[in-house]
Amino acid sequence: QVRVVESGGGLVQAGGSLRLSCAASESIFSIVNMGWYRQAPGKQRELVAAITSGGSTDYADSVKGRFTISRDNANNTVYLQMNSVKPEDTAVYYCNARVENYYSAYYDYWGQGTQVTVSS
Q1: Is 117 helix (H, G, I), strand (E, B) or coil?
Q2: Residue 84: closest CA among 16, 20, 19
Q3: pLDDT of residue 27
Q4: 17 by DSSP, 3-state: which?
Q5: Dihedral (C-alpha) 97, 19, 5, 56: value to the nearest 10 degrees?
Q6: How far is 18 from 79, CA to CA, in rounded Å?
Q7: Pick from 74, 105, 89: nearest CA to 36
Q8: How far apart are the first and last CA of the chain?
Q9: Are 119 and 11 in contact (CB under 8 A)?
Q10: How many angstroms from the chain centroid is the CA of residue 73?
Q11: Do 120 and 16 form a contact (C-beta atoms < 8 A)?
Q12: pLDDT tens for each residue of the chain, 120 residues long
């Protein structure tokens, strides 16, 4: 079992910046991927950004050039730097940690979510 805890959400004006943090507890298995997803009211959860243990990143088209994901493997921590935020970035942001066990099976663990609200 991996515990995932997000922090850093809040209210920010359009054009401003916000930094989200996520810490995953230690695991006997490898945490291969960590990422941020978001869910706005009435919409499905969507990928915002993800990063592998090797540092490869993936971003949603809507946040490319504005958001940056980074990771501290030693502390199982991932960050999301959000710049030039827009009202459409308003959502609950969830952190995800994907674990690979000895049999190459993957398990996803989620945080409780942190609200990000961007005012216009």
Answers
A1: strand
A2: 16
A3: 82
A4: coil
A5: 10
A6: 10
A7: 89
A8: 40
A9: yes
A10: 14
A11: no
A12: 899 999 999 999 999 999 999 999 988 788 899 999 999 999 999 999 999 999 999 999 999 999 999 999 889 999 999 999 999 999 999 999 999 988 888 999 999 999 999 999
Alpha-carbon gap, residue 62 to 105, rounded angstroms? 31
| Contact present, 53 and 32 (Cβ < 8 Å) | yes
Which of 86, 70, 2 has the alpha carbon at shortest distance from 35? Answer: 70
d(CA 113, CA 20): 11
Structure tokens at 20: 């989200």
Query: How many beta carbons lie within 10 A of that of residue 119, not counting itself?
Result: 11
d(Cα 117, Cα 120) in Å, to the nearest integer? 10
Alpha-carbon gap, residue 7 to 5, rounded angstroms: 7
Identify each DSSP E strand in 1-120 by its residue range. Answer: 4-7, 10-13, 18-24, 30-39, 46-52, 57-59, 67-72, 77-82, 91-100, 106-110, 114-119
| The token pair that represents 25 in the structure block | 């507890």
**């088209």: which residue's tokens?**
61
